[in-house]
Amino acid sequence: MLVQISLSCAFWGYVGIHLNTVTCIYKYIIAYARVDLMTNANIEMITGDPKRAIRTLAWPLIASMILIFINNIIDSIWVAGLGPEPLAALGYITPLFMVLVGFGNGIGAGANSLISRYIGAKKKDEANNAAIHSAIMSVIISIVISIVFLLSLETLLNIMGATSVIEYAMDYGTIIFSLTFVILMPPIFGGAFRAEGDIKRSTIPIAIAAIINMILDPIFIYTLGWGVKGAALATGLAPLMSLILILYWIFVKKDNYLSYDRKYFHHDLKMYKEILVVGIPASLEQLIMAILTILVNYMLTIVSGPIAVAIYTAGWRIISLGLLPAIGVGTAAISVAGVAYGARKYENIKTATRYSAKLGLIASIIVCIILNVFATQIAFIFSYSEASSQLEPLIASFMQLMCLFILYVPFGASAGNVFQGLGKGTTSFILTTIRELILVLLFAYLLGFVFGMGETGIYYGMLLGGFIGSVVAYLYIELYINRLIKGKIEGSKI
After folding, report:
1. N or C, fewer C-beta in 10 Å, the chain?
2. Cβ–Cβ < 8 Å for 46, 119
């Protein structure tokens, strides 16, 4: 819009019609002021009171994440109508899909962290350059991941134990990983939007993708009769409109705080490194979760067979939905902690950490109560067909037990995300690995196999390991921040 007004002003000035020239200049100033006011408001919010910033950033994030998971749950609901085998196949693809989403979220977190620190240090040109570097990286990573997964998909599924449902799993996975770029790129751009406090533009595309997927699912799966392939197409094609909208905002409308103009781009390998220092560990954290799901599926297959995998797949999707308030609050803390770190306001980091844990815990308690009370009704949505009706009480029991997992996630999530905001992605990754992989699997194996508790023992082990890991992570971030405040640890170098 500003470009169009500028061109119009130049024309009227040239022909000497001064009234129109003045009018155009006025319009230009008003238009510029509107953009400036919007961006300044976002920046003032993100650099101001940490509690207010987290609240402002968190709730739209939580809403958009809920839509994403409802979207995934709806996939499961519609696929469940096809029978237990297609639902189990979806369970085997889910951890691989998590890896894909993890790369997008991870690189987005890396961009968020770096850009936030530059904004906190009041270095806008460097922030613009970092945003451009993250966009370039999104294209490269999309191509690489798509090729790797398509070439290795069948082998991976066989290793995971999906032999009995390999046809369904291949139908779903091949389509998903062929559309990697539309799934991976929006969250990377979203990280840049969150860094500048533009929460609307970081969440609206996610909501659009989820809603479109909900509409396409029944049409593709049943109306057109494409079955599992239809579910995959709906999941893969829905984010395309989101990506188009994001590119319109960035390269056509150009009214956000960060600029992707070529004049701000200066090729700098250190920029890629800084993004990857947080982005790769953050991506690997999602990989850790995927590996956990794969190994839990494998253990459940040994002790109980595919039915147990189907129960875990359906029930864990609901538990994952319940984790979103804590994850959303923690994700908001990346931006707030990054800005505070760049500005060397270390007390604000402590405030952000404690407040995000507190807010996440309150929301998690509410979610846990809801899941306990309505477990049977929720389980029904995965067992409405005759082919899967026997799963209802089993899924309900799973949710009533595993909702306890939700209660201590706010502490681990807040710790990990604050470390990401500080640019300490490796630390966050190590804590996540200890919490979500080593301790959870160790106790799941001990209780499930060594103590012979079977399927129930695996679930109790997951609860115990996750609890210990979350407590350790939170205590460590508190210790780190206190040392940072006292000057015992070197602060931001930006």
Report:
1. N
2. yes
